Amino acid sequence: MSVFAMGFLLVILQPSSGQFPRACANTQSLLRKECCPSWDGDGSPCGELSNRGACQDILLSQAPLGPQFPFSGVDDREDWPSVFYNRTCKCKGNFMGFSCEECKFGFSGLNCTERRLRTRRNIFQLTTSEKDKFLAYLNLAKNTPSQDYVIATGTYTQMNNGTNPMFRNINVYDLFVWMHYYASRDTLLGGSNVWRDIDFAHEAPGFLPWHRVFLLLWEREIQKITGDENFTIPYWDWRDAEDCVICTDEYMGGRHPTNPNLLSPASFFYSWQVICTRSEEYNSQQSLCNATSEGPILRNPGNNDKSRTPRLPSSAEVEFCLSLTQYESGSMDKMANYSFRNTLEGFADPRTAISNISQSGLHNALHIYMNGSMSQVQGSANDPIFILHHAFVDSIFERWLRRHRPMLEVYPAANAPIGHNRENYMVPFIPLYRNGEFFTPSRELGYDYEYLQEPALDSFQEFLIPYLEQARQIWPWLVGAAVIGGIVTAVLSGLILACRKKRAGTSPEIQPLLTESEDYNNISYQSHF
């Protein structure tokens, strides 16, 4: 796509959405603790006159939390979003949005009744024009102010409990960088004190559902600002890659010729500025990231600590991870063993599923390997490779869901780290989404992955996998049951023959054998397989 065409897009297209709705970022809304904007279609709050939704009290989960966060009432993100609002729009049917102005993921049409399925594709399978359009869309998002959302630049206490609102404008791309930062930032405890063992988007069960919502919202924002309703996020399949094959100027930016930590001047992203990367500075000042530019994107792929991440993940490691039957286990944090989530996230060894926080596997391995902006959790979304990487991580999550077909109850309802229980609302999204709502196959959310759209036979095999696995686990019991069944059949046959002989006038002397047969039968039923 030419520079002229990209500039033309910047001029004609309308910006859109993100985190704190602009309509609720004011003193009146904060003091009333209500975020129920009017729907433009009929002018009523939440589109109530058109039966799209209604303004209702937020119902918070009362399930107990894990022990990782020993405080209460010190962090604005606790019981999200009740510190800021306790009434929001509750949308009906397939409507969604902070004013019920949109359709739920996977639906479209005037009344949101039409199902729609989009396909995410491998970035290397895109045509040159499709790839260039994707890069242009990224630049458009970086240069388009969000009309519907703003970010908070202070805590609720710093806002004097709502009487002094502290919000500012932000562009669409950086809005998502800020949301990722806000969900993973440390808790400010006053003075120079912070609590670091807290994260509403990582190191716990919500890691995969949270990033699934994050990508869906990001995808939708691109669709809005470009008018391209068919746009989907591409993914980078990094299995068995020997190096960063997307780190070229044709794709996500090559290496600077004189400074290996910077991007090439010929890259689309050479001029991009990062935000929210100075966590220690924010902590010392007891402040929030205010989206001030903090320098260029840093990236030096492969020059990372090899003792922590020796290489990019392999296909075998992904397959082992997919074989794990438990979504979550034990403490449900980064110390969990045999947990699919913890192994995919990268805190457990991808060959044994045993927690090993001195190593970084699978998802974490990519972040460490990039050796720059991607390698620091709070600011990692500054690098656009983040989007491609997490789209592929989400596809692995999707493969696990299709293979094991878990019930919703598999996702923990209680005792997970703060913010990660099934019914907790995800921080910092408004409108509100619960963790459990996105523990569901992607097709139900309106998207699929190109490499998962297999022929009917392969799909049937994928369908059979969980049942074959169960059969393998109970096979010894089935064999034992067959043996016992044979013994029982033999005994019953003997009884029948004995009865026939008795009817035929067999002498009473043989009758005690019937008792012996009954005793033998009882012993057989009590034996262990």
From TrEMBL:
Q: Which Pfam families match?
A: Tyrosinase (PF00264)
- Write the record's keywords in alphabetical order, separated by commas: Copper, Glycoprotein, Melanin biosynthesis, Membrane, Metal-binding, Monooxygenase, Oxidoreductase, Signal, Transmembrane, Transmembrane helix
> Which GO molecular function annotations are given, in alphabetical order?
identical protein binding; metal ion binding; tyrosinase activity
Question: Where's the Tyrosinase copper-binding domain?
Answer: 202-219, 383-394
Report membrane topology.
Single-pass type I membrane protein
Xref: Gene3D superfamilies: Di-copper center containing domain from catechol oxidase
Would the keyword Ligase be found if you checked this record's keyword annotation?
Answer: no
Q: Tell me where it resides.
A: Melanosome membrane
Q: Supply the InterPro entries for this chain.
A: Di-copper_centre_dom_sf, LE_dom, Tyrosinase/Hemocyanin, Tyrosinase_Cu-bd
**The EC number(s) this enzyme carries:** 1.14.18.1
Superkingdom classification of source: Eukaryota
What GO terms in the biological process aspect are recorded for it?
melanin biosynthetic process; pigmentation
* Residues annotated as transmembrane: 474-498
Region described as Disordered: 293-312
Q: Which residues form the signal peptide?
A: 1-18
Q: What does this protein need as cofactor?
A: Cu(2+)
- Cite the PANTHER family for this sequence: TYROSINASE, TYROSINASE FAMILY MEMBER
Describe the family membership recorded for this protein in Swiss-Prot or TrEMBL: Belongs to the tyrosinase family.
The name on file for this protein is Tyrosinase
Q: Which organism is it from?
A: Chauna torquata (Southern screamer)
Quote the gene name from the UniProt entry: Tyr
